[in-house]
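Recall from the previous lesson that a structure prediction takes nothing but the amino acid sequence as input. Here we apply that procedure to Glycosyltransferase, exosortase A system-associated from Croceibacterium xixiisoli. The sequence below is the only information supplied.
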Amino acid sequence: MNRILHVLDHSLPLHSGYAFRTRAILKAQEADGLEIRGITSLRHTAAGPDQETAEGLTFHRTRGTANGPTGLREWREIQLLADAIVKLAHSWRPDVLHAHSPALCGLAALRASRRLNIPLVYEIRAFWEDAAVGNLTTHEGSLRYRLTRSLENRVVAGADAVMTICSGLRDDLIDRGVPPGKIGIMPNGVDLTLFGDPLARDAALAAELGLGDGPVIGFIGSFYDYEGLDDLIAAMPSLLRKQPGARLLMVGGGPMEAALAAQAKASPAADAIRFVGRVPHAEVERYYSLCDIMAYPRKASRLTDLVTPLKPLEAMAQGRLVAASDVGGHRELITDGVTGTLFTADSPEDCADALAGLLARRGEWASIRDTARKHVAQNHDWARNVRRYQDVYQVLSKQDGNRRLPAAAA
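The prediction returns the following tokens.
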């Protein structure tokens, strides 16, 4: 199976963790000899042509309008995307549909797969009902929560194969009754070709931000409640008692930005905390160069226990030390004391102790960085891991040898 159509919520040129994972997958598959295209749902809101090339990758856009009350509007979105997939398939003729969560993409791809008589792989990056809880837009057990979960179950049941990004998601599906043999794992990864030698500390930028000469704790990403950044700010007074020169650098933005800025302003450690807002993607490495430790204090929840984040892997690939809360998603990525440091989730005091302890072991930093980068190269390099998809596609090819778009349909 050489021609794969990826069904996506959105894509490049929009910038998001979702879009960057998609880029890494598609680039790695192209390098492995596959023909790749993507098609996006109505949720891709950036202006552009119906067929667009972004960073050398080809994406097709779904057009139309989905109006109406909640439920009916989403159903119309699904139908428009399904029709767009079928129309594209009649001209480009993919061998496999590879849909990526959310379930709206999966349901559209499932409809199209049955109309086209070609296999469907459905990939779950997170359970979106849990992500909505983490973003404070719903609560566990709500009607929206239960409906989203039901739609996900429907896609999983209908797909020919299911992929998840980590063991936590796979185990949860098995608990729901999905046969283990139907579910594979494609772990979060990084494109190591994007990471050369880490940049030297940008002294001019450090001076501009007033960081001084002490150690810098950094967070670069989106400011959501589940990220636990309030605990990181709350840890700073205790950390300063142990490491008076330490500074906290916060880069990014999001729903919690105003609340976090107010908390920092009221903190006894206010003078040691810097908020710089969002920065252009091309500038991010300059800010990484300032940080001795990247901190990921995620709160304990279903979302953080089941889902592995991408940011710690990127930090390891860039030669940064990593300190993270001991939620399940982090434990899948980080071995405490070997590739990073883990501390108790929802505990500012334990966060402060862990950071102070790591700062005090400067002599071990080179070894930890080297071990962490090797771990990423061996277990989370897209160039290597992407071949897991090819194994799944080949199995589907053998099982569904007669499932092909009829020549007359072209």
